[in-house]
Amino acid sequence: MDLSKLNPPQREAVETLQGPLLVLAGAGSGKTRVITHRIVHLLNERPNHIMARNILAVTFTNKAATEMKERLIHMAGPRAQGVLVCTFHAFGAEMLREDIHRLGWPKKFAIADMGDQLSIIRRAMREKRIDDRAFDARKVLTLISKAKNSGEAPQPKPEGMGDDYDLITSMVFADYQLALKAQGSVDFDDLLVLPARLLREHPDLHRKYTARFQYLLVDEFQDTNHAQLDLLKLLAGTARNVCAVGDDDQCIYSWRGAEVRNILDFDKHFPGGKEVRLEQNYRSMQRVLDAANAVIAKNPERKDKRMWTDRKGGPLVKVVACPNDEEEARFIAHEIQKHISLGIPADDIAVLYRTNGQAHPVEEMLREKNIPYEVVGGSEFFDRSEVKDVIAYFKVLANKLDEISLMRIVNVPSRGIGDVTMERLHAHSRAEGVTLWTVMRRADTYDDLPAGAGGKVLEFVEMVERYRDAFAQTPRLSEATHKLLEEIGFREATRAKAVSGTAADKKLKGVDGVLASLEKFEKREGPKASLLTYLNRLSLDTRQEEEEVPGQNKRVTLMSLHASKGLEYRLVFFIGMEEDLMPHGGMQGEAQNLEEERRLCYVGITRAKELLYLTRSTVRVKRGKEVPRTPSRFLEDLPPDAFEVVDMDAPRQGPPDEKEKNFFANLKERFKKPTAGGPGPGTPGRAP
Ligand code: ATP
Ligand code: MG
């Protein structure tokens, strides 16, 4: 590999192959590049010792994993195929697929989704005589998840300390865990916790996995939580070949349990390692970098990092005030159109926002102007009721023990199996100590069911078992699903229930979406495709709030700041630069969150390579009322010579003028002629 494409500290990081290594450096300094090059170096330098399958690279999202893998294959050829690149959760799922039976789960376990989790919690609350309408099961779920990720079982706080929810959570926690296991499921957090248990409690498995994964690399280390660090430490074994890269200034997931201390205390967790700092920024031009440095410098507790670039000058950051959010969206769409006409590819443009709700006005304007775009995350696709029904069918077919999904579909579409019937069957199942399914199979032997109900239950059981066999025997899942939906009359029933024809179409589109995603899955998996792997794949994907977008590839990207981690675009619109949005509302009072908001702002700014717009509205409509808005405090931190204010009262319409054209022509020239050690031609889209 050509190590000349790296600067000296990057090279040092790439060539340090043994022992713990931390690369702590600012945004755009080439940390992710270090990871990919280090992997290629591992594969190249010691072909006889280090095999692709001995390398595990952990990324923050599935999307980042896919991109890194493609990059590796591009750089090192097909043998990079064997490198495992995935998120911590996907890695955990992989481990559990092989060995979860050692902890007493069935080998074919399912991953519970949030709906399943909430049902279990509500049931557990009811059994403890806690009113599940007075207390929000979601809050309990959040606390359970927090506990699992922090490695401490929920405890009731001492008198006068915690609130009701701490108490409720500690009361239902054990039941929740048992219920999940009883139905052969794990939750998302278990994908981290259970693998760690496997390694801790089973020395033979510890040997197996440490022998297999000898080289560990972790990107975005600043956003790991306790459970992930725990798993990483166990996997590292005695060799401790752990390379972690990250930036404490970009820790933006503390609300989900990320602990910035993991990176700050790296030396405590992996003593005796090496630390490398990178200071040259290759992504952004000077002005963007100046803005980013100035904003983040205001955070009190941070490791100071100086970043410089040899891409001097560059366009000033544009600070734009718009009369309202509609005008803000119109301005953005207009500028995007202009830049596309000037030759910036649509997929090198991003619109970033603090909350997903901000996307809508921009979407509308882009649609109006026929500018192709994709919205990353924030999709409620899998929350649609019909989609949930179809998925629940899959779950029942894949897992006999999944009683929650069974209850969801037993009378969908309506087949005359009512609540009374199911309650009685439940009672029998409890009394006899057997599963609900077992009881349903002999429904005709109970005489306390409503007239005719036993027969209907048997018919349903027969149908499910027939499809269970059918699905087990074919990898052509979408075809089997078509048949199933046909037989149960799912589409007609959906039509009959909908308030209008268009409403029905919308609902059925969701179902078609499921079929399309199944087909894609089948293509990818070939003869290995099974319902269970599909479901597990699905829960990994949706939890990361990502959606694969089919079709056109040159699109403007709309996404939240949180989703923009690690990515880069030539042109970035960072919108809603107002108090209450950036920093996000309700958080100003708490110093710690204000610091995280500042880090988010830093992440947003540092996504831009060339040109950055910071836009805001002076008025927003909230619940039908016009509310005046205050500019974000972060705007005040921008260095005066890094930005200009664009007057929006007189937006220029139409094609760009000569001055603008020349400016961009110059810019293009700059990118064609990189200075020594400087940036290559502006590579489109994503980080390597
Ligand atoms: P972030 O903190 O945002 O994740 P990062 O530190 O991971 O950023 P990269 O995405 O690896 O940074 O790199 C930023 C950009 O700089 C990429 O386009 C990358 O190709 C480029 N780059 C990194 N190192 C070099 C180098 N030595 N020479 C030329 N370009 C480089
Ligand atoms: Mg990166």
UniProtKB/TrEMBL annotation:
<keyword id="KW-0413">Isomerase</keyword>
<feature type="domain" description="UvrD-like helicase C-terminal">
    <location>
        <begin position="286"/>
        <end position="566"/>
    </location>
</feature>
<feature type="binding site">
    <location>
        <begin position="25"/>
        <end position="32"/>
    </location>
    <ligand>
        <name>ATP</name>
    </ligand>
</feature>
<keyword id="KW-0378">Hydrolase</keyword>
<feature type="domain" description="UvrD-like helicase ATP-binding">
    <location>
        <begin position="4"/>
        <end position="285"/>
    </location>
</feature>
<keyword id="KW-0238">DNA-binding</keyword>
<feature type="region of interest" description="Disordered">
    <location>
        <begin position="668"/>
        <end position="688"/>
    </location>
</feature>
<dbReference type="InterPro" id="IPR013986">
    <property type="entry name" value="DExx_box_DNA_helicase_dom_sf"/>
</dbReference>
<keyword id="KW-0547">Nucleotide-binding</keyword>
<dbReference type="InterPro" id="IPR014017">
    <property type="entry name" value="DNA_helicase_UvrD-like_C"/>
</dbReference>
<dbReference type="Pfam" id="PF00580">
    <property type="entry name" value="UvrD-helicase"/>
</dbReference>
<keyword id="KW-0347">Helicase</keyword>
<dbReference type="Pfam" id="PF13361">
    <property type="entry name" value="UvrD_C"/>
</dbReference>
<comment type="similarity">
    <text>Belongs to the helicase family. UvrD subfamily.</text>
</comment>
<protein>
    <recommendedName>
        <fullName>DNA 3'-5' helicase</fullName>
        <ecNumber>5.6.2.4</ecNumber>
    </recommendedName>
</protein>
<dbReference type="InterPro" id="IPR014016">
    <property type="entry name" value="UvrD-like_ATP-bd"/>
</dbReference>
<dbReference type="InterPro" id="IPR027417">
    <property type="entry name" value="P-loop_NTPase"/>
</dbReference>
<keyword id="KW-0067">ATP-binding</keyword>
<dbReference type="InterPro" id="IPR000212">
    <property type="entry name" value="DNA_helicase_UvrD/REP"/>
</dbReference>
